[in-house]
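Why do we care about 3D structure at all? Because function follows from shape, and shape follows, mostly, from sequence. That is the central idea of this module. The next example makes it concrete: a single protein chain, its amino acid sequence, and then its structure expressed as C-alpha cells.
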Amino acid sequence: MDNYIINSTTKTPEILLYGYIGNWKDTDSKRFISDLKSLEAKHQQINVRINSGGGDVFEGITIYNALKNSPAAIHVYIDGLAASMASIIALSGRIIYMSRFAQLMVHRVSGTANGDAEKLRETASLMDELEKNLVVIYSERTGRTVEDIQANWMQRGKDTWFNAKDALSQKLVDKVFDGVIAEAPQQTDNPNAVWQFYNTQLENSFSNQLNNNTTMLLAQFKNQFGLPESATEQDVFAAIQSQHNKNKLLQEENEKLKSDNTDFQNQLKVAQQQKVTDLVSNAIKENRITEDQRPTYTALAEANYDATKAALSAITPYKSIAAQINAASDDAPEYKTFREYQEKAPHLLAALKENDPAKYSALYKKEFGKTPKP
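And the structure:
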C-alpha cells in the first residue's frame, strides 16, 4: 500500500504524503511523480498535506523538484510532522501552511556505508555534498545565509525542532492554520513526546496501514535489540535511546583515544629525534665523524636508525699524530733512545720531530753529543 493517498473527489485534489519516503516504504519517486503528472493535466492547484518523519534523500529531492517545478500551484499543508527530508519537500510549496499543533524538524544528513576506507571516505564526501544542497534549499526559502543555517540548524548529533510559531518566524512557512488535529505537543526537548504524537497521528489517519508497518518495524527493532515479543513501543524506543547513548559514549571515547594517540605519537617523535641527535653527537665526540658531517648522518639516522648506527660503529675513530705517539709510547716504553726509534719505529721518530721537537732534540743530543740541525 502507498504511503501517500490521492483524494481527487474535491475541486482541488489533495496528495496526502503520510509516512516515510523511500523505495523500501513503497513511496518511490517514480510512481509519485507519475500520479502527480496525472493531476497536473487536469487541475491548476494541488494541495499536498504532509505528516512524515522523512526518509531517503535522493527520493525526497526528486519529489521536491517535481513539486517545485510543477505547472500547478502547489499548496503545502503540514498537518502533523515534517521532519528531515519531509521538511525539504514541504518547502516546495508556493504557499506553505502549518498547523499550530505541528512540528518541523531539521538535522544533518545521515546514513550507513560498507566497504574499505576509500569507500567510506567516498560516502562521507557524498553526504557532505548532499547536506550542502539541502542547506541551500533552507537558505533560499528563509533568506538566512548558508553559513548561519549550517552552524545553527545542522549541529552534530542534534535535531533542530520548530513549532508553528518558530517556523513562521524563521520563514519556513507562510501561514499557521488551526486545523482539526489531535492535541499535539509544542516544541520540546523530549523526543518521547514527539514519538507518541507522530504515532498517534498516523494511527488516526491510516490505522490499517500504520498497524502493518508499525508491526513490521517493531519486529525488526525487537530482533535487532534482542527484546522479547511482549516488548512495547516504549520499550523499543528506550532501547533505541540506550543504543544512541552508548554510541555517543563510544564516540567520545574514540575521540579521546585519537587525542591520546596523537600525544603519544608526538612524544615518540621527540624521543626518536633525541635518539638520533645523541647517536650523531656521540659519533662526533668519538672522532668517528666531523661536525660538518652532522647533517648528513642525521638525515641517514632519521631514515634508518639501526643501519646508521652500525655504519658509525664501523668507522675507526680519528687520532692525531700526537695521540698516536702517546699511544705508541704507552704501548712501547722500551723506545728510550734515538737509535731505538731509528731501528724500530722510524715513522714515530719523524712524527716526534714534527710534534715534539724538544724531546727529539734531547734524544738526538744524547745519542750524538750535539744538537741536531734545524
